[in-house]
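Lab meeting minutes (informal)
Scribe: AK
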Amino acid sequence: MLGFCTDSGAQLPPELVGRYGIVVVPLTVTVDGVEHQEGVDLDAEGFWDRFARRPAPSVHTAAPPPGRFLEAWGDLAAQGATEIVSIHTGSEVSSTLDAARIAAEMAPVPVHLVDSHTASFAVGCCTWEAAEAGKRGATADEAVRIAQAVAATVGNVFVVGALDLVRAGGRLGPGTGNEGGIPVLSLIEGKVQPIGRATSIDEACDQMATYVLKLGDGLRVGLSVADRGAAPLWEALESRLVGCPQVREVVRYRVGPSVGAHSGPGTAGAVAYPAPRLEEPARAIHRVRR
């Protein structure tokens, strides 16, 4: 039996974790000097609530210690896993994989570590498709190759000023300080690049949806929002993608502490990749509870 693991930086929503039995290793997030384990004693809701107060909290993130990986892999082994594919945040941006390599030498079963060379829900996409392949009977080596292939094709698009649009009633006007609009961005080869500007929720979502649909066919899409104040963009973007012939599945996820520490409030967007076509032609759309 093949088991799957990732770290909480992958931002996997509970629906996907439960569907595939994925075990998530929590990153350490320190807020105002107090250490927390992401997803254990600090979730997205609790994290963003702290930004509603002033001053904004001081936040730092750190890789999990090796012991957390051993605990996660031990849980999978106890469930019957004889091999584990463990997919993690890229080594270029995190030391998570370094800790995993130390732990792998003591793992109870063989562990295949995957450096995704990416971050946030793009790591989640690699894990999602690898676990889907495992569900269909793929070997560990095949699942690793699939995760690496997804890492090479996954795309992203987002805005970080979503709250400005919402507070302006959906459109930025004179006197807001953002008359030219907020930038619509994509992280490409490790660099944030602008792909447009938007002065309304509709403009932002139109641009983001167009970008996603250009990524290919059979798309699996994750729609993100940080604090709930940006939820209108979540809903508007979803309405543009669900039901499109290029889109196979859509899930929602919250931007959690380990990513939100760097992106800040008001972040909303999408991460997507063209999934290999399955034998079944039907498309299922899954909505994660908010």
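Next up, CB showed the second protein from the same session:
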Amino acid sequence: MSRTLSEIEKVFERSGSRYEIVDYPKRGKKSVDVLAVKGDERFVIRVIDNVSRMQKVETDELKRLAASFSCKPVVISSDNTDEDLPIDKGVPLVHPKTLERRLAGEKFFTIYSKGNIYVRINPKELHRKRLKKEMSLGEVAEFLGVTRMSVYEYERGMTNKVSIEVAHKLVKLFGEEILGDIFEVPELESVKTKGNNSYKYSLSAELAEKGYNVYEYSYSPADVTAVKEGKRMVIVVSEVEEKIENARKIVSMFGGEFYVKQVE
């Protein structure tokens, strides 16, 4: 077990959170290490000691799992992270102490990305506040010193972070309620890939035809997750017992239906 994962276990125990360690696959790329619940919040977590080894395919799958079960995806590392300033890696990259503070109820609004510090905003709250003040997109844009299209993208969630200068102006105009927590549940479209497992792909296609949002995985114990109108499924296409048992932890922690499919 990595030093960071050991530290994270202690964080969850001190906070009174429920959690499960996912220990499959054992080697190579991996998309999730910990499943956790604290109060009404759910988290799926990738724990890594060496940030430079983290790959985008891993965080992409972490977001798919988070979207499937209304979880907040997080990458945690003690390596080169500042507990006061999370880093944007597609999902928040945070120090273990940042997670502990979050579990204690602290909110984080700022995030570091590509050499700059940004502030997350809440698109729905921004839209609500603007309508309440009866301001047009153009009027808000003029006050902020940005384009009308920029304000439109803020409200649609197409751009979920702004400069500190713009954030200060937004707070002055609408109040702190428009700030957005960096820990958020992602909204994703179905993600299916044509990989080597043709059976998995055909299964995903069949579920998609029935109206499910479908997500496929290569570096998780689950092979497919599917969501439709609150119904959630975890599907494993394997006979490997260790893989099956680790995938079962997802349903045990977050609920849903569990299926094991064997390739004929």
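CB comment: The chain has three domains: 3-103, 117-178, 198-261.
No objections, moving on.
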